[in-house]
Amino acid sequence: MPHEAYPLGAPALDELCRTSLKYRDRAYAPYSKFRVGAALLSADGQVFGGCNVENASYGAGICAERTAITKAISEGQNKFLAVVVSSDVPSPTTSPCGICRQFLREFLEPNVPVYFISSKYPLGGIPDWLNDVQGQEAQEFIKKMTMEELLPNSFGPENLI
Fold first, then answer.
1. Residues paired with 87 in a beta bridge
2. Closest by Cα among 134, 135, 144 to 112
3. Which member of 54, 65, 106, 140 is catalytic?
4. Which tens digits make up the pLDDT trace of 80-118?
5. Residues 111 and 3 sit within 8 Å (Cβ to Cβ)
6. Alpha carbon distance 118, 121 (integer Å)
7. What InterPro entries does the entry give (predicted)?
8. 44 CB contacts (<8 Å, ≥6 apart)?
9. Residue 65 is a catalytic residue
10. Looking at residue 8, what is its pLDDT?
11. Other CB atoms within 10 Å distance of the CB of residue 91
12. How far apart are alpha carbons 136 and 134 in whole angstroms?
């Protein structure tokens, strides 16, 4: 179902899922072999994708979520309605790491939905179950949380004002 504050129908969510998977396939992960893709929907309807990019100096790598946010910010976008994260893991369990959760929190309101999708997400048309991502049939492919659920009692920009 669409989120009350941020309506997102099945076609828009499907586009985000496909974008996330497309960027996952572009990941540069020669060391961990753990590819991650992310897709953000901006308030004006633009979709920004990102992938993880590793580096021989491990700490210099960047995660998919931070890549997508950085691209969006550099294009003048700073308000987002949804995020999708994908990996090669067959269950929808790959969620943003700790630093990405804080990075996302800088730009996402607490009630923004964050979706984790399975590597088995079907690419042959919009699945019927996508209209009810909390339903039993969808659980094999997608998990939905809010930013608040992902990072409860978070520290955000409003804490500094």
1. 36
2. 144
3. 65
4. 999 999 999 999 999 999 999 999 999 999 999 999 999
5. yes
6. 5
7. APOBEC/CMP_deaminase_Zn-bd, CMP_dCMP_dom, Cyt/Deoxycyt_deaminase, Cyt_deam_tetra, Cytidine_deaminase-like
8. 77
9. yes
10. 83
11. 15
12. 7
